[in-house]
Amino acid sequence: MTEALGGALLAIAPAIVLTLTAFVLMVLDLLPPRGRRGHLAFVGLAGVVAALVTTLLLWGSDVSAFRGMVVLDNFALFFNLVIGYATGLVLLVSMDYLRRRGQESGEFYILVLFAAVGMVIMASANDLIVIFLGLETMSLSLYVLAGFFRSRIEAGEASMKYFLLGAFASGFFVYGIALIFGSTGTTNLDKLGAAVAAGASRDPLLLIGFGLLIVGFGFKISSVPFHMWTADVYEGAPTSVTALIATGSKAAAFAAFLRVLLASLRPVQADWALLLWGMAVLSMTVGNVVALAQQNLKRMLAFSSIAHGGYMLVGIVAGGALGNGSVLFYLLVYTFTTAGAFGVILLLERGGEEAVRIEDTAGLAVRHPLLGLTLTIFLLSLIGIPPTAGFVGKFYLFGAAVRSGYIWLAVIAVLNSAIAAYYYLRVIVSMYMRDPEGTPTTVVPSFAGALALVVALWGVVQLGLMPAPLFDLAQSAVLPLLR
Amino acid sequence: MTSYVLSLVTFVPTLGAALIFLLPRRSDALVKITALVTTLVTFALSVPLYARFDPTAADYQFVEQAPWMPTLGVSYHLGVDGISLLLVLLTTFLMPLTLLASWDSIERRWKEFSITMLLLETGMLGVFLALDLFLFYVFWEAMLIPMYLIIGIWGGPNRVYAAIKFILYTLTGSLLMLVAILALYFLHGTATGIYTFDLPVIARFVLPAGRVQDLLFLAFALAFAVKVPMWPFHTWLPDAHVEAPTSGSVILAGVLLKMGTYGFLRFCLPLFPQASLAFAPWMFTLAVIGILYGAWVSTVQADIKKLVAYSSVSHLGFVVLGLFTLNPQGLVGGIIQMVNHGLSTGALFLIVGMLYERRHTRLIADFGGLWTVMPAMSVLFLIVCLSSLGLPGLNGFVGEFLILVGTFQVNRLAAVLATAGIIFAAVYLLWMYQRVVFGPVTREENRRLADLSAREWVILGPVLALIIWIGVYPVPFTSKTEASVQALITQVQTKAAAPAALAPRTP
Questions:
Q1: How many angstroms separate the CA of residue B394 from the nearest CA in chain A?
Q2: Assembly ipTM
């Protein structure tokens, strides 16, 4: 019995570490000194690092616990890494940012940690109900975080929109689970897989159920046509929260989505691959084309994140260890790159206010050459210019598509990358080739913020020059699901 | 025995860039000297390549290979043969000259400027030296950004538009090439079981003639055609040239455009021989259109720099013509002409830049009668113009003559039309020269123009020397390429004739 309990606790060890840290933070938040709460971020960071260490220690384990509802395999562990990096970077860039905005309080860090708990649960969930639990834990925290700057009207709008549409998506999701349960009598992904393989996929109830699940996931990965909330939420949320929504929540949603697709639906891959093909093309094209017209950096990155979600769908469509491994690798790359880009953007100010329009970056490369260079490298990685990580990520994704014979999908993706280059370059143009209007200021990052940027930059360069070890890791991480 | 000379040549500029990055911001003189020394060291390292290069061997020499992403079959593989040798030397030769030419004309942000230029040099050398398709692509793309920044930061008034146009055109072309590289990789892998990006290995693979080969050829060819640029993909070029600073224009014309023709030579011809033969008439057509169109548009330009820019479209048409003849004369001519164009057009841009520094205008109408004011400059200008239009005894003639001989054997009409292009070249260049240099001095400002300075002599002198050397005695240059060209032709012919023994299964 104790051994079973030990195994069960092991399976959720990273989540436990994060939860305990959040509880510690709640207690610390009550203690004096009142006022500055930045030290809580460091405690939270320590918890994240502990969770990352736990993840690394557990690497290679293959534990199934709670009657198969939770599994801890390399797939889950890889996503724990991604989520850990995302959370850690967000905590680091938040400290100084919140203080400058006069919104520094303990709840913020606590909520970030709870969101991370939800993400980690999603990554190791092997049961639709548990996925839903993780999804809601993450989403509820993020709804609140999105509206954290209460005094701003956009914050209220963002939070409200995120909450309402998110609740809708959850409704779809739960309804889907209900139909699937009604059709097969189980919510366990492995048992579902067996049922599908046995021919249950001809049951219309099950098909509708999975369709509704895909709607729910489509919302969370902001894939077209379920992307409507993205730009407003990204714009209204505090920039560091935007970074978390763009990276961690997306990674967690992809984790659960991939597990559902691979563990339960692989027998009917031909059917959903077609559906995802369409979603990929729509996401890439709509995301990139609409991003062209944006003047606000956060909105631009919102639409670009829709497009990047589309690129990742290309990897899922391609399938196999190569395709799905590329998705995992790309998520890691995207986390470093996007968290880094937002980390620079939240340093832009004008007259004490946040300045997130493209014009506000004008002359950044002259005012702060190092910050300008840093943002340039992140943007080049988002475009996919070698030798940055973004290039290698795209290379793997498109390579997988070509290998599986989806040449046209690869060509569409490649043309989309060329469109995308235009709007990212606009920012580089603004930084290097335009003179600033008025008196924009750029805050010099604090030690924590600088550390976050250095880590993100290191990730982008390291994964660009030496991608092989981590890519092999990503590829091996999807193998448990392809058995 | 592995020598590391190629890595050294490629990455010494990067090291220099890193060194400059560490220098204090306010020390322009130190930055300039460090950059210049770096490029001179790079040149000095590359000269022994030429000396030690064995002209009788067609193989890649000074080869270096190390695994990079072994699971994927990507390796760090460098090597040089008779085709790339001259282009490497051209690059390392032009770089110090362009830095010298920028000495006074680049007024701000020298630190960033020199870092960008040095990274650009690494990218260009990498493109010519890479023998792994992945590595090649990395250099090919990585080099875009420095060039983009050079146009966009240090260029003329319309620089941002030109820079973005430049990068979007080339990026679109090269991204399609990426898909083709991936397709080739998997085709080769499924057919042979060896998954590799190694060019010499893939080049042995006989791809069956047909739709797949045609599509792959077209994807590669589009990327290269944009870069060359061939008509009708040339529209980014005049904008980029006119807006770029002198150094940017020289590097664009001297080296970057050569990457397109080099790509045809290194990838399209040996990898897709049947498609190359099948599309040769189309390439001839586009090349001839480019030759004539470029020449005609040059004739009516009011801006000297724009005239030189359009003349590049015309001159590169000759190179493409030569490459697709697939006979020794045409190919050797094409390779020599790549070098010649780099020297002649590079020198023209340098001279235009010198005139612009003095007068802050590039309009032909603003000059006139320079012969009496600046005789030395006028003489050098004349020699360069004559070399550009292909006067016997100067370098341009050697290349164009060989190309026309080669073309005449395969396509008489193209040869005849291209010859007309030479006549038009004489028209626009000499007419421009006449209006700028001859006649009375029409503008008061022009009376006080200084003749060539010592620095300008140092810049133009070596180029002039090479222009005359190649014109009078081209053997030292052609001899290094012949074995490789012959090997290339044999390879294309045997592959085109061979039944596709290694026919890939459809995936």
A1: 40
A2: 0.85
